[in-house]
Amino acid sequence: MTILEETFTLHNGVKIPKLGLGTWQSAPEDAYKATLFALKNGYTHVDTAIVYGNETEVGRAVRDSGLKRENVFVTTKVPAERKTYQEAKESIEQALRELDLEYIDLMLIHAPRPWAIMHENPENLKYFEENREVWRALEEAYEAGSIKAIGVSNFDVKDLENIMEACKVKPMVNQIIYHIGKTNPEVLEFCKANDILVEGYSPIATGRLLGNEQIEKMASKYDKSIPQICIRYLLEKDILPLPKSVHEKYIIENAKLDFEIELEDMEYLDSIQ
Which of these, 197, 187, 182, 200, lies nearest to 270 by C-alpha position? Predict the structure, then answer.
């Protein structure tokens, strides 16, 4: 069994493929071609978002792949700037319409705060009540069956606790940036303790880890590429990696992960800053 055939199981019983194709920063037609190629070469999981501007093309690629709908897992996201119940409800309807896939496998709140203040937030705005309202809309769609699983993205522990204090349905996923040199052990530990699957986007740091001499040395030891080491690094931590590529060669190579990284080597990779 290859990694493309393996799954994690969310706390509601839904199975999610262990490796997904990321489409962040993929132009619409590039996203279509990459998704179609990936699906025709063993991938069954693709990650998109309303703000990526490529939902329509991702949905078209899924339909054109010839795969049964139930055999493809599609994730999308409510934009970070939409923080009311009504806006969230409209986002869900928009995603269903643009993807045109009958239902959504997983939908996330893209970020706990609007992107303009995600990294610099001088007024320390929390958006706690607003996120609960967005979550209420996701819960309703989940209960109605138009979304099979719901979760969040870029949430820290306090953001997660805020949702969990008021929710009827606990988040199933938290998608965060996670790669060698940029880890988040506090969030990872909290999510594991609460049965929330962590997904890691940008596992190769949007290409910045290419050429890293320390990782190159490790890649040589295992006779693998730097991206393969970076992606496997997440899997060793039970994090679901979402590598993005529009190149057929790399889409295939990114899934060749039939090896394990030894514990001492994981500790070494953990030490890289």
Answer: 182
